[in-house]
Amino acid sequence: MSHRRRGVGVGRKKPGAPSAAQGRSKSPTPNASATTAITASLNADAIEHARSVVDQLQRDLKAFAESHKEEISDDPAFRQKFLKMCGLLEIDPITSNQTFLGRTLGLGDYYYKLALKVQECCVARRGRDGGVIKVKDVVSILAKRNLKATPSDISIALSKISVLGGSYRVVSVENEDYIFSVPGVLDEDVPKVVSLAQKTTPPGVGCVTVDMLCRTLGWDEARAKRVLDKMVRDGMCWIEKIESEVAYWLWGVWWSDKGTT
């Protein structure tokens, strides 16, 4: 009895064909271009949302500035709070009048004009205080000229024009801010002398000696004399002989102790 050879049926695996298990184990690979398109769309949506938030913030801030323009210009305390708020938002309404706030408020012009007034004040008093004056004294002088400004306003104004060069700078000495308007580079030892001078008495506030600098600051005599001699040449202090010792009186500290006029 002859046996017939069975033919190839549908259940028989074809050579090179994947098994059903293998076919089920592989998930279809996403199209790369489709993925790129989806990512680009999501990025565009995020950028557009961020832009709309920034635009709304600018509109709200501009509306606030417009409605409170007079208070920002005339009230130093309110102005400082407004600037602090802008700082938290990383917005500078001062640097350029081309910004949306600059065009609204003109604060750049305000601080530029204030810096000029401060410079005029310092120049007028340089022969009296030797180019060293307390910021609070400048505030008092400007107030007598009907110009309201805070110590912070003055610091901002001078910092904004510092890029133009010049020798005006605010230096903090023992929690007291001074404006130094001495030409040239400010010796780092000078504020230390000013600090000591505003605490000494007797012979009086504003006076230091070589021995005092050596004992208090730990300097050697050569360093103390170098700094004091330079301050004398720059007009920052005058010399007076008290008994057997030479005393150096700092104009700015001594006059400030007498009050502003």
UniProtKB/TrEMBL annotation:
It comes from Triparma columacea. Pfam families: EAP30. Residues 1-15 have a biased composition (Basic residues). This is Vacuolar-sorting protein SNF8. Belongs to the SNF8 family. GO terms for biological process: protein transport to vacuole involved in ubiquitin-dependent protein catabolic process via the multivesicular body sorting pathway. InterPro entries: ESCRT-2_cplx_Snf8 (IPR016689), Snf8/Vps36 (IPR040608), WH-like_DNA-bd_sf (IPR036388), WH_DNA-bd_sf (IPR036390). Residues 1-35 are annotated as: Disordered. Residues 22-35 have a biased composition (Polar residues). The lineage of its organism: Eukaryota, Sar, Stramenopiles, Ochrophyta, Bolidophyceae.
